[in-house]
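Saturday, quiet lab. Running sequence design on the C-alpha cells for the scaffold JK sent over.
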C-alpha cells in the first residue's frame, strides 16, 4: 500500500516540482526542479564534522564552509523530520538511524548499507567513540567493558552499525551506582540499547544519557562533568592533549537523504559537496 501511495504522490508532484523518475547521473529521464533546501546539523555536531570533511565542504584551512542558507537542525530526529516534510530538501543522518520516512541516496554509485561500509565501498563513514577523562570510575570502566564485549558488540551489529571484532564474553560485575554519559545524538540511540542490556545484568546501576552533541560531550569529559563522553567524529589534537582517552565502539555510515518524493537516486561526492557549499542551489543544475 505504501508503495502505491508513494507512486501516486510522485505522479501528483510531476506537474509542479518533479517530472518522471530517473537517476541524476544516468543521462536519461528528468528529475526534480526548483531551489534546493540544504539541511545541516548544528556546529559542534559530530555528524556534521565528519560529513563536511568527507564531502569536502571545507576550505584550504579546513574550516567548515557549509552554506549560510542551510537550515540547521540540532538532532538526528529533527533532521529526519525536516527532510521528510520538504520535497526540496537534502540532508544527512547516521546510517543506523535511517528510516523509511526519507530516501537514502547512493553516493558515487554505491548504496548506503552496512555491508558496503564494512567492505569499504561506501566511503561516507565515521567512528562512534566513547571518550574518558583522567579520572574514570570503576563503574564507568565496567560499562565500557560490557560495550566492548561479545554481548555489547552483538547489540551494536543488531542496531545496524559495524561492530568491533576480537571480543570476549562479559561477566556481570555486581556493582551499583550511577553513570552519566553526554554527547553525540547519533551515538545516543545505540548507547541507550547498550545501557538497557548492561542494566539487565547489573540491576543496581542507573545510567543517564544526555544528548548534547559531540563537541559538548567531549568538553564534559574534559571537565569531568560526565563519566563518559560520546563522539561521532575523531577527536582533534587539541582535545586529545587535554588528557582524554578514546575507545572506538563502532563504525557508522552517514546516509545522504532526500524526501521520498525526490526522483534522484544517486549523486557524486563532488555534487553533494557543491550543494552543501552553496555552489549548486537548484535541482535543475543537478539534473541537467
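Result came back. Writing it out in full:
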Amino acid at each position: 500500500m505504501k508503495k502505491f501511495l508513494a507512486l501516486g504522490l510522485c505522479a501528483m508532484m510531476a506537474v509542479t516540482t518533479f517530472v518522471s523518475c530517473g537517476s541524476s547521473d544516468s543521462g536519461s529521464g528528468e528529475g526534480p526542479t526548483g531551489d534546493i533546501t540544504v539541511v545541516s546539523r548544528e556546529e559542534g555536531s559530530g555528524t556534521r564534522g565528519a560529513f563536511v570533511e568527507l564531502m569536502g565542504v571545507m576550505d584550504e584551512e579546513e574550516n567548515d564552509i557549509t552554506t549560510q542558507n542551510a537550515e540547521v537542525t540540532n538532532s538526528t530526529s529533527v533532521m529526519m523530520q525536516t527532510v521528510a516534510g520538504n520535497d526540496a530538501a537534502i540532508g544527512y543522518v547516521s546510517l543506523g538511524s535511517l528510516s523509511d520516512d526519507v530516501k537514502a541516496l547512493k553516493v558515487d554509485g554505491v548504496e548506503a548499507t552496512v555491508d558496503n561500509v564494512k567492505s569499504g565501498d561506501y566511503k561516507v563513514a565515521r567512528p562512534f567513540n566513547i571518550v574518558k577523562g583522567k579520572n574514570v570510575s570503576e563503574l564507568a570502566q565496567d560499562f565500557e567493558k560490557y560495550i566492548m564485549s561479545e554481548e555489547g558488540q552483538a547489540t551494536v551489529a543488531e542496531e545496524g552499525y559495524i561492530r568491533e571484532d576480537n571480543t570476549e564474553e562479559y561477566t556481570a560485575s555486581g556493582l551499583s551506582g550511577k553513570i552519566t554519559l553526554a554527547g553525540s545524538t547519533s551515538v545516543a540511540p545505540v548507547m541507550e540499547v547498550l545501557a538497557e542490556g548492561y542494566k539487565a545484568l547489573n540491576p543496581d546501576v542507573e545510567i543517564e544519557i544526555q544528548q548534547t552533541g559531540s563537541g559538548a560531550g567531549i568538553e564534559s569529559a574534559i571537565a569531568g562533568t560526565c563519566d563518559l563522553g560520546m563522539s561521532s567524529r575523531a577527536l582533534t589534537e587539541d582535545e586529545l592533549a587535554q588528557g582524554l582517552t578514546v575507545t572506538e565502539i563502532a563504525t557508522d555510515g552517514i546516509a545522504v537523504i532526500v524526501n521520498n518524493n525526490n526522483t534522484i537516486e544517486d549523486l557524486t561526492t563532488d555534487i553533494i559537496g557543491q550543494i552543501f557549499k552553496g555552489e549548486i542551489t537548484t535541482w535543475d543544475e543537478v539534473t541537467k
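Notes for JK: DSSP finds eleven helices and eleven strands in the chain. The radius of gyration is 20 Å. Ask whether to fix the surface positions before the next round.
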